[in-house]
Design goal:
It contains eleven helices and eight strands. The protein has helices at about 10-20, 30-40, 50-55, 65-75, 100-110, 125-135, 150, 160-180, 190-200, 220-225, 240-255; strands spanning about 25, 45, 85-90, 115, 140-145, 180-185, 205, 215-220. An eight-stranded parallel β-barrel has the order 1-2-3-4-5-6-7-8, surrounded by seven helices. The chain folds into two domains: about 10-235, Phosphoenolpyruvate-binding domains (TIM Barrel), CATH 3.20.20.60; about 240-268. It has about 270 residues and is α/β, with parallel strands linked by helices. About 45% of the residues are buried.
Length: about 270
C-alpha cells in the first residue's frame, strides 16, 4: 500500500489487484468528511449519487442532478489530498448517449474528480468506451444498480438465477473490454462476485457482494451509524454516532434555554 501522505492514482488500482491488496473506498459529499477520511488513509473517496437519500432527503438517487454532483464533487475535492476521488454520474447524464456522457464526465473532472463512475453493463459499453477514449478514467457498476430501481422492481439482490448470473458475468466483462479501470459489484451473491473478481483483470469493488472482491465501499452515513431510514443487510455500522450527536445538540439547547451558555469564557 501507499505510504501515508503519498498520492493514490489510477495506476495503483491495477497494482493493488496484482498484489492482492484490498482497496478501501468510502463515500463523502463535503470537504470536512473528505478530509477526515483522507487523513484516515482510505485509498479512494466516492462522491456517490447516494447523496440524494443521505444528504438531500430524496426517496431515491433518480432526482440527483449534474449540478448537485458538481457542487458536492467540488466540495469533496477540496478536502481530499491523498485518496483517489471518483464521482458518480447521475441519472440521465450518460444514458442519452456518448456525446452527453463525455460532456458531463468532463464537467465532473473540472469540478475536481479524478474519475467517474456510471451504472450499467453491456448496454453502456459504447458510453464507457467513448468516455475512456477521451482520457477520462471510468469505473463501472453492475449488479444492483440503483438508477434502475423501477426496472428491477425494487432494491433486489441480482444474480440468484443462472440466467442472471451469466448476464452479470457478461456485463462485467463488457465493462472491462470497454476500457473501465475498475468495476463496482453491488447486491450480488458472494460466490458470483468471487468468480467475477477472479475472471477480470481489473479490480472489483464490492458493496453487498461478499469478501472476495478486490475492495469494498460503504456509504459514510451507514458506516458511521447516522442513517436510519433503512439498513441493508450488507451494511456494518462501525460507529453509532447518531445518538452522541443528538445528545450534544440537546445539551446545547438545554444550556441556551437555562442561560448557561454562553458563559463568561465564551464572551468577548
Amino acid at each position: 500500500m501507499k505510504k501515508v501522505g503519498e498520492k493514490v492514482t489510477i495506476l495503483d488500482f491495477a497494482r493493488y489487484k496484482e498484489k492482492g491488496e484490498k482497496i478501501v473506498m468510502i463515500t463523502a459529499y463535503d470537504a470536512l468528511f473528505a478530509r477526515i477520511f483522507d487523513d484516515a488513509g482510505v485509498e479512494s473517496i466516492l462522491v456517490g449519487d447516494s447523496l440524494g437519500q443521505v444528504v438531500l432527503g430524496l426517496p431515491s438517487t433518480l432526482g440527483v442532478t449534474m449540478e448537485d454532483m458538481e457542487r458536492h464533487t467540488g466540495a469533496a475535492a477540496r478536502g481530499t489530498g491523498r485518496a483517489f476521488l471518483i464521482a458518480d454520474m447521475p441519472f440521465l447524464s450518460f444514458q442519452t448517449g456518448p456525446d452527453d456522457a463525455i460532456r458531463n464526465a468532463g464537467r465532473l473532472l473540472q469540478a475536481g474528480a479524478e474519475a467517474v463512475k456510471l451504472e450499467g453493463g453491456r448496454n453502456m459499453e459504447n458510453v464507457i468506451r467513448a468516455i475512456a477514449r477521451c482520457d477520462i478514467p471510468v469505473m463501472g457498476h453492475v449488479g444492483l444498480t440503483p438508477q434502475s430501481v423501477h426496472r428491477m422492481g425494487g432494491y433486489r439482490v441480482q444474480g440468484r438465477q443462472e440466467a442472471q448470473r451469466q448476464q452479470l458475468r457478461d456485463d462485467a466483462r463488457a465493462v472491462q473490454e470497454a476500457g473501465a479501470f475498475s468495476v463496482v459489484l453491488e447486491g450480488i451473491p458472494a460466490d458470483l462476485a468471487g468468480e467475477i473478481t477472479e475472471e477480470l483483470a481489473i479490480p472489483t469493488i464490492g458493496i453487498g457482494a461478499g469478501p472476495r472482491c478486490d475492495g469494498q465501499v460503504l456509504v459514510m452515513q451507514d458506516l458511521l451509524g447516522l442513517f436510519d431510514e433503512f439498513r441493508p443487510k450488507f451494511v456494518k455500522r462501525f460507529g453509532e454516532l447518531k445518538q452522541p450527536v443528538r445528545d450534544a445538540v440537546r445539551k446545547y439547547a438545554d444550556e441556551v434555554r437555562r442561560g448557561k451558555f454562553p458563559g463568561k469564557e465564551h464572551s468577548f
